[in-house]
UniProtKB/TrEMBL annotation:
Pfam families: Phosphodiest (PF01663). InterPro entries: Alkaline_phosphatase_core_sf, Phosphodiest/P_Trfase. This is Type I phosphodiesterase/nucleotide pyrophosphatase. One of its GO terms (molecular function) is hydrolase activity. SUPFAM superfamilies: Alkaline phosphatase-like. It comes from Haloferax elongans ATCC BAA-1513.
Length: 412
């Protein structure tokens, strides 16, 4: 089956040059509920029936999540990577939008809890938690100086519970193949810096999983390479080819395990796509004409709140008397959406039914540039030198694939 035409979804969700999340139906946030439903469990909203109605009696679901490999990346690499074309012929590729923000910390909390950012409260890679008087990176739960936050526990980073106890209660065994340990499932860890170690970890998961089972495999290498080198680079093309070589080998391993299993559904997806920004033009809000740092609120020790959101989803926690002036300057100087807090809430940009955790972490202004990075403070130059980026509302960030095929069809 050929790649489904994304134009209808894109046209429906288009907002000028930006693309809004399709929370009500064709959204990344509904993948966990869909996987659970296929295995006889109910953990949250699922994709429309058309996404999986051709699949019956599924006893094992395997999801490969390739970080940053959006629909634009799939389309750009499919002629060069035979595996992608073979997968299309064997199954289907359904376009979805991801959530907002289109970035890993928020998306993976959504993926593991089946809740939207407006509920779980992870507003981006960086989080400012007023109740704890802390700024920290949601992943890997560290302050910028490398120390662990002292006034908030890691369990309180997200205002949501993982879906895996519910799956276990429904009799579904879950295995995670990731570069970091998982406490909610059976973990199979590998070294993110050495992609060859993925194969042994996945083979272990495939051998140990008993039906009904869910195997989740996370591969972040493409995203990391794109940050440094850009999507349009030889380094990105090399790591993408290696990644899908490992995925293809993992599918071969699954096929070898079929004697002990019923029907297996294989899914390929991504948490977000990517765009290449221009480090020569990326915007430093610490510099003129913005000089923004002096306008920021501060922690109790006087440290300005520099870190909230990300460079494509910048949350500005401002002194009350400076909000209007900063808004006027940003809207005059930037090719960007600059949204006041109430506008974000009214638009349900992060999802509906916002929690109190989300509302207090949400910036007074949220800045989403059309195609550049916007950052400020101590790490501005590091972030603004990145090429491949995500977190915003560009269609290439927001559209992702949800590719599905049965193991039998892939073996034919």
């Amino acid at each position: 089956m050929q790649l489904s035409d994304p134009s209808a979804l894109q046209e429906r969700q288009q907002d000028g040059e930006y693309l809004l999340p399709a929370y009500e139906d064709w959204c990344f946030s509904r993948i966990p509920g869909t996987v659970a439903d296929l295995l006889g469990a109910d953990v949250g909203p699922r994709l429309p029936e058309a996404a999986t109605d051709k699949y019956d009696d599924i006893s094992r679901v395997v999801v490969f999540l390739v970080d940053g490999f959006g629909l634009a990346q799939w389309d750009g690499e499919r002629e060069r990577i035979p595996f992608l074309r073979d997968f299309e012929r064997a199954g289907a590729v359904q376009p979805l939008t991801t959530i907002f923000p289109s970035e890993t910390a928020a998306a993976m909390n959504t993926f593991h809890s089946a809740t939207l950012p407006a509920e779980h409260g992870v507003v981006g890679w960086n989080v400012y938690e007023p109740d704890a008087d802390e700024m920290f990176e949601a992943l890997p739960f560290l302050r910028k100086d490398g120390t662990e936050p002292e006034r908030i526990d890691i369990e309180d980073v997200a205002n949501a519970d993982p879906i895996y106890p519910e799956l276990e209660a429904a009799g579904v065994e879950t295995h995670h193949v990731t570069p970091f340990p998982s406490e909610s499932t059976v973990p199979h860890t590998y070294d993110a810096e050495d992609l060859s170690t993925f194969s042994d970890a996945f083979d272990e998961a495939a051998a140990e999983a008993s039906d009904p089972s869910y195997i989740f495999a996370y591969l972040p290498q493409t995203d990391a390479t794109a940050h440094a080198e850009g999507v349009d680079s030889e380094a990105y093309r090399k790591i993408t080819a290696e990644t899908f070589d490992r995925v293809a080998a993992a599918i071969d391993t699954l096929a070898e395990e079929t004697d002990d299993h019923g029907e297996t559904l294989v899914c390929l997806t991504a948490d977000h796509g990517l765009i290449d920004t221009d480090p020569e033009r990326n915007v430093d809000l610490s510099a003129p004409p913005f000089d923004l740092v002096s306008d920021l609120k501060a922690l109790s020790d006087g440290t300005p709140i520099r870190f909230s959101g990300s460079a494509r989803n910048a949350h500005l926690h401002l002194r009350p008397d400076r909000i209007d002036d900063v808004y006027d300057t940003l809207t005059a100087e930037l090719d960007a959406k600059v949204l006041r807090k109430q506008e974000v809430l009214d638009a349900d940009l992060f999802g509906s039914n916002p929690s109190s955790v989300f509302e207090r972490r949400l910036g007074d202004l949220v800045v989403v540039h059309r195609d550049l990075s916007v950052w400020y403070g101590d790490e501005a130059r590091d972030k603004l030198d990145y090429i491949g980026m995500h977190g915003g509302l560009h269609p290439d960030e927001m559209l992702i694939p949800f590719a599905t095929a049965t193991l039998d069809s892939l073996a034919d």
